[in-house]
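hiii so um. not sure if this is the right channel but i have a protein structure encoded as tokens and i wanna go backwards to a sequence. like what aa goes where. can anyone help
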């Protein structure tokens, strides 16, 4: 008998997915004013940048913790806790305080970012099956892209009033918290095919997907952190237009995420990575050889399409192969890997930048992603078969192939 899903669940999941992406970008426009306000602190320029970076670092720690909580405690309660922390610690910057307490609040906010994404993904895995699950994972990706764009636009406007006002965007949690409190969600349950005696999410195939997620987010982060300097060096765009150029990535990523459910029906479970890796390789390659602004725009669009198809797919593949009792922890660890990839991006890409310059770094990043995608497509099915035999994973569901939709689906 089909479980009835609350009509409030989808809006709740979309809002919390947006919030999970708004942590760092929401503060970016206010950083110069914050630096000026605390100018008496030694090395304040360095510490001001850490207001953004520390959130990503603690999100990588918070996601596995909240994933464990969602398995052991309750999915909805974990989501409500993350939402409350997001609102309280995020908006705390509205008030005058020492810089170090502001930095600590940003660390606590990072825990909530990881928690929101982990609990959100676990609820999608519990509440939706087959094509509908893929559709919701794609919509989650679209919502995170929308969150990035919204936070940059709204917080930029608020920061023009006063830098304290940029933190008021986190008060959106007050509007969504009643929705979370009154939304009923399905209880976490194991899959019918879950014959695993082990409730640990760790397996060879799981670690392969996590590795790709780290590389994918590290390459993705090249765009906001390195592209502005490259564009400035090449004199392709005026400074006033750079913000508009950077929105191409989340826009194309969001559109592709919305189409992910349809696209993924035409690929086997592991082969979907080849499509994503190829798109990102072509995009970064086009940027690396660009001679006109149009080539930059097309390249960023291709990278956005690649990430828009890859990020929901890693969630889908984990929720498909991991035993039901460990899905929350698995998706929490995966979310932590995504945030770690963002944080580690400069460490991974800086040697290539030093050795080959910006163009060489873009080419290196694209080639690395394509090779990783091909490796997953070849090794992934073999590793999964071994993990299923050892009882560490559940068998691949048959609805991931071509034209294998659930009844009633187009």
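sure thing!! here u go:
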């Amino acid at each position: 008998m089909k479980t009835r899903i609350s009509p409030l669940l989808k809006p709740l999941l979309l809002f919390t997915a947006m919030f999970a992406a708004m942590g760092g970008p929401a503060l970016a426009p206010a950083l110069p004013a914050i630096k000026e306000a605390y100018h008496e602190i030694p090395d304040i320029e360095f510490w001001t940048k850490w207001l953004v970076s520390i959130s990503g670092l603690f999100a990588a720690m918070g996601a596995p913790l909240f994933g464990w909580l969602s398995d052991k405690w309750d999915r909805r309660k974990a989501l409500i806790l993350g939402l409350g922390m997001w609102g309280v610690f995020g908006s705390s910057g509205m008030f005058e305080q020492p810089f170090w307490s502001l930095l600590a609040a940003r660390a606590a906010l990072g825990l909530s970012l990881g928690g929101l994404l982990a609990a959100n993904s676990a609820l999608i895995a519990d509440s939706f099956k087959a094509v509908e699950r893929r559709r919701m994972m794609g919509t989650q990706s679209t919502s995170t892209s929308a969150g990035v764009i919204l936070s940059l636009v709204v917080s930029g406007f608020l920061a023009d009033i006063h830098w304290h006002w940029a933190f008021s965007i986190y008060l959106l949690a007050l509007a969504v918290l009643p929705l979370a409190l009154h939304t009923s969600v399905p209880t976490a349950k194991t899959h019918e095919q879950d014959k695993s005696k082990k409730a640990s999410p760790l397996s060879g195939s799981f670690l392969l997907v996590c590795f790709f997620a780290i590389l994918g987010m590290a390459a993705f982060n090249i765009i906001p952190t390195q592209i502005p300097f490259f564009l400035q060096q090449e004199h392709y765009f005026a400074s006033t237009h750079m913000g508009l150029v950077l929105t191409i990535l989340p826009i194309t990523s969001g559109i592709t995420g919305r189409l992910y459910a349809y696209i993924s029906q035409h690929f086997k479970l592991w082969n979907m990575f080849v499509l994503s890796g190829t798109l990102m390789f072509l995009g970064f390659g086009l940027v690396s050889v660009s001679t006109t602004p149009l080539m930059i725009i097309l390249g960023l669009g291709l990278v956005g399409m690649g990430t828009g198809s890859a990020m929901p797919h890693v969630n889908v593949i984990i929720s498909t192969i991991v035993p039901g009792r460990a899905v929350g922890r698995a998706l929490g660890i995966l979310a932590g890997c995504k945030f770690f990839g963002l944080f580690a991006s400069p460490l991974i890409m800086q040697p290539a930048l030093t050795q080959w310059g910006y163009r060489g770094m873009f080419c290196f990043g694209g080639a690395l992603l394509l090779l990783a995608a091909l490796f997953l497509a070849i090794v992934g099915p073999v590793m999964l078969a071994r993990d299923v035999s050892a009882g560490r994973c559940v068998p691949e569901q048959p609805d991931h192939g071509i034209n294998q939709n659930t009844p009633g689906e187009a």
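oh and The two ends are 22 Å apart (CA to CA).
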